[in-house]
Amino acid sequence: MTRTLAVVSLVLAALPARVGAEMRPLWEVGIGPVGLYLPDYRGSDQSRGYLYPFPYFAYRGEFFRVDREGIRGIFFESDRVELDVSLYGTPPVDSKDNTARQGMPDLDATIEVGPVLDIVLARDRKIDYNYRLRLRLPVRGVIATDLSSAQFIGWTFYPHLNLDVRPEFLGGRWNVGFNAGPLFASRKYHEYFYGVPAQFATPERPAFTASGGYSGATFLTSLSRRIGSFWVGAYARYDALQGAVFEDSPLVKRNSSFAAGLAIAWVFAESDRKVETPD
C-alpha cells in the first residue's frame, strides 16, 4: 500500500498538465500498468526496473483536485497565483540489495506533503493557451514509513521553473512539460539517505554525518496524451549532485542520477458532469 501510494504520486508529479482549458469530466477512473526505472536513491550507482499496477484517478473539484500536480487541496487560486497542498512519494529500498548500503537499515517508502505556491510568469493567452511558464515553490515535510511505523525525516524545498507546451509539430495533441531547479533539504532528510552512523561504518564505508542545504539540481521532461479511452504518459528525470552538501558521503557512488517511467491507463468510468479545467 505504501509502495503503491509512493509510486502513484511519483508518476503523477512527473507528468505534464494539459495546457488548454476545456470541458472535462469532474472525475475519471482507470487502471493500467506503469513501468519505472529508478536509482535506489539519488547518488546510487544501482538502479532497478519496476512494474506496478497503476490506478488512474482524476478529480477536478473547486477546492480539491487529483491530477498531474498530485493530490491537492486548493487554498487560494487567481488568474496568476495558486496556493495549494500537494503530495509526493518515493518507493522503499531494501539495503541488502544495494552494495553501498549492505548491513545498514532499509530505506522505507517516503511520503512528502506540504504547501506549493504556483506563480504564472508567462503564457500566450488566458484561455486555451498553448504554453505556460510557471515558478513553482513547493515546501514539503517528509515521512518515512513501512506501514507498521513512521518517522518524520525532515523537509525539502524545490523552487523550479515549469514550462507546459502543446507543440504544433506533434499535431498539438501531446502535452509536453519541462521543469528544472535546485533542490534543498534539511539535515535530518540528508542524514536519512546519506548519513553513515559509527555502528555501520566499515573500512570501505567510513562514518559520515550529513548537513542540511543544497541537494543538487533536477531536470525533468515529460509528455502525455489522452487517446480515446486510454491515457498514456512518460517522463525522464536527471539529477546533478555536484556541489551537494552530502557529495562526500560514502553512499554517493555517482554525482548524477537518471530515472524514467511509462504509464498507460484504460479510463473505464467518468462522471456525466463536466467542468472547465486546464489540466
Structural key phrases:
single chain, 279 residues, mainly beta, Outer membrane phospholipase (ompla), Chain C, 13-stranded antiparallel beta sheet, two-stranded antiparallel ribbon, 2 helices, 15 strands, 8% helix, globular
Protein model, in words:
The protein is mainly β. The protein has one domain (2-277): Outer membrane phospholipase (ompla), Chain C. It is built from 2 helices and 15 strands. The chain has helices at residues 2-14, 187-194, and strands at 22-25, 27-39, 47-60, 64-67, 70-77, 81-90, 109-123, 131-145, 150-157, 160-165, 175-185, 213-227, 230-240, 256-270, 274-277. Strands 2, 3, 4, 5, 6, 7, 8, 9, 10, 11, 12, 13 and 14 form a 13-stranded antiparallel beta sheet that branches. It has a two-stranded antiparallel ribbon with strand order 1-15.
Q: What's the number of extended β-strand segments? A: 15
Strand content: over 45%
When the domains are counted, the total is 1
Gap between N and C termini, in Å? Answer: 27 Å
Helix content: under 10%
Uncertain spans: none
Question: What is the average per-residue confidence, as pLDDT, rounded to a whole number?
Answer: 86
> Can you summarize the main beta sheet?
13 strands, antiparallel
Which structural class best describes the helix and strand composition? mainly beta
Would you identify the CATH architecture?
Beta Barrel
List the helices and strands and how they pair.
Elements: H1 2-14, E1 22-25, E2 27-39, E3 47-60, E4 64-67, E5 70-77, E6 81-90, E7 109-123, E8 131-145, E9 150-157, E10 160-165, E11 175-185, H2 187-194, E12 213-227, E13 230-240, E14 256-270, E15 274-277
Antiparallel strand pairs: 1-15, 2-3, 2-14, 3-4, 4-5, 5-6, 6-7, 7-8, 8-9, 8-10, 9-11, 10-11, 11-12, 12-13, 13-14
